[in-house]
Amino acid sequence: MTQTPTQQPQASAHFVVPAKHPMVTVLGSRDALLRVIETAFPAVNIHVRGNEISATGTPADVALVQRLFDEMMLVLRTGQPMTEDGVERSIAMLRTNGSAADPATETPAQVLTQNILSNRGRTIRPMTLNQKRYVDAIDKHTIVFGIGPAGTGKTYLAMAKAIQALQAKQVSRIILTRPAVEAGERLGFLPGTLFEKIDPYLRPLYDALHDMIDPDSIPRLMAAGTIEVAPLAYMRGRTLNDAFIILDEAQNTSAEQMKMFLTRLGFESKMVITGDVTQVDLPNGTKSGLRQVQEILDGVEDVHFSRLTSTDVVRHKLVGRIVDAYERFDDRNAANGVKGRTP
């Protein structure tokens, strides 16, 4: 006797989009957003008629689709448009958290509508759940470490929070610093003044500043000392009060440099330290201060470690895949007893 395969139970859901929201804002131009949803839920049949949307499929998938449309509507009500990337990230968050709403977990709408800074018509906001938790940690803690691969917004979001704090008069100045790795002997052979020699190491910080502040005001703010961009060596012997201090590329600090930097903390100040422990450029035998500090400060009150992953990469989608591929390569090497990491 031949047994027929047991069919999974089917469920259906029905949504009505309010008339004040044109369907193009929900479905996207040429149904681009709808195609993202259909690709993510291939077993769900989604039909659109007028301003009504219906979905049929397994109960779990239909519940997620229903949550997704609810979250999209919450975002649209704030006046913020939905994008293909926003829909993909919303689906990823819902799948991670489950279909049922958990009051202890941030929803996609909460993540995607948290504005940090607006400048020249552009708004900077977290794009993933881990990014939101990173930003929230900066509000709650005095010292925050943002650790993760390239493209996860570690430094960019920290700088946006620094400028927000400056504009709100929570601090009187911003100090941005990073180690000038490999600059020891090479600086002496480079032409120009000391500032011109170290400028290439600090250029990424200037680039981010130009995205967030009117470029014409940056020289004035720097001349007044309101914004300072300097190599890490310039921090020695100082006490930094009433400041928002960011140390970038912290994986390239030695253990001594990390201790020196952390002990610069003054009253009414906040520190954010960012880096990628898989991309250490220190000479062989020099231990990364960022790797070591995680063991030393683990559990210390008012110090928080935020860890971001390839799922938090907000650059080109391929960057996240590249990060994952390198991690798999390193894991295989470690399993085979091959020393060293990818450069």
List the topology elements.
Layout: E1 11-16, H1 23-27, H2 32-40, E2 45-49, E3 52-57, H3 59-77, H4 84-97, H5 108-112, E4 117-119, E5 122-124, H6 129-140, E6 143-147, H7 154-167, E7 173-178, H8 183-189, H9 194-212, H10 218-223, E8 227-231, E9 243-247, H11 255-262, E10 270-275, H12 289-296, E11 303-307, H13 317-335
Parallel strand pairs: 6-10, 6-11, 7-8, 7-9, 9-10
Antiparallel strand pairs: 1-3, 2-3, 4-5
Helix pairs in contact: 2-4, 3-4, 6-7, 11-12
What brief labels describe this structure?
343 residues, alpha/beta, 6-stranded parallel β-sheet, 3-stranded antiparallel β-sheet, 13 helices, 16% strand
Structural class: alpha/beta
Question: What is the molecular shape?
Answer: globular
How would a crystallographer describe the biggest sheet? Answer: 6 strands, parallel
Helix-residue proportion: 40-55%
Give the integer mean of the pLDDT values: 85
Per DSSP, the total helix count is 13
Indicate the radius of gyration in whole angstroms: 24 Å
Which runs of at least 5 residues are low in confidence (pLDDT < 50)? none
Strand content: 15-25%
The termini sit apart by 61 Å
Number of strands: 11
Neighbour order of strands in the largest sheet: 8-7-9-10-6-11
Question: What is the helix/strand order?
Answer: EHHEEHHHEEHEHEHHHEEHEHEH
